[in-house]
Design goal:
13 strands, alpha+beta, 3-stranded antiparallel β-sheet, 8-stranded antiparallel β-sheet, SH3 type barrels
């Protein structure tokens, strides 16, 4: 690898920062650089209203977050943190369908074989830990996950696709289909096995027909899916923490 581990140079952190900047309220203010000569803007330190608004909003949020995390923060302000979390969507789990009153529906046959209940409350997508998960019928990309079997983080994560999201004991749970392993010919190895710092692996394009129950806390990350032949796909883990580092932390 010419540039070291992939986690050292991929662009996901920059994309996350762009998303943070895009969500800052700017009150539809435009940059003053649109109204001045390009050369003057290039050689001056003048900042437009748009840039100043984004900078001040970011700094105010960072200072408030730091203050709420301090042990000497007043109790009255700490109580406001709950209101801020509800107002700005920082809850640990958020159901995007909460604005509508959901009702239980008849359980699909394949899901009934897993949970053995006649009625179930199905969801299209949820947000947990600021990450959005969707069923495959709603959004294919958000349905692809890597999870630790039975929640055992000492086991390597396996890829799967979320077919159903349902409520069980007041908590959202996934019903997933695992990605089937690829049967390699004799003397053939996974071409990505020799790149330990690139978390990709080949699998069969087929999904298991058996549903498996997965808690949201068992999920490590999303994954990317790329079809390279009629019966083979490459699956890339999109975790922000390398697998080697996570195992070292557990040890």
């Amino acid at each position: 690898m010419l540039f070291g581990p992939v986690h050292s140079w991929w662009t996901f952190p920059f994309k996350r920062l762009i998303g943070v900047l895009q969500r800052l309220p700017t009150n539809h203010k435009s940059s003053e650089s649109n109204n001045v000569n390009f050369r003057k803007t290039l050689f001056s330190f003048h900042t437009g209203e748009l840039e100043a608004t984004m900078l001040h909003s970011y700094l105010r949020g960072a200072c408030l977050h730091s203050w709420l995390s301090c042990p000497d923060c007043p109790n009255a302000v700490q109580e406001c943190k709950v209101l801020l979390d509800h107002a700005y969507g920082n809850d640990n789990e958020y159901d995007s369908d909460c604005s509508r009153t959901r009702k239980s529906t008849a359980t699909p046959p394949d899901l009934y074989n897993l949970i053995h209940k006649q009625d179930v409350m199905l969801q299209a997508h949820i947000r947990y830990g600021r990450v959005v998960y969707s069923r495959i019928a709603t959004h294919v990309g958000n349905s692809l996950i890597m999870f630790h079997p039975s929640g055992n983080r000492s086991l390597p994560p396996v890829p799967a696709s979320i077919k159903y999201i349902y409520k069980q004991d007041g908590q959202s749970t996934f019903a997933v289909c695992q990605q089937c392993p690829l049967v390699l010919n004799k003397g053939t190895n996974d071409p990505f096995a020799c790149y330990p710092h690139f978390p990709a692996k080949t699998y069969s394009r087929m999904l298991s027909t058996t549903l498996e129950k997965v808690k949201v806390s068992w999920v490590m990350s999303h994954c990317a899916w790329w079809l390279i032949s009629d019966d083979c796909v490459v699956i890339l883990t999109l975790s922000r923490v390398s697998e080697a580092l996570s195992h070292a932390t557990l040890i």
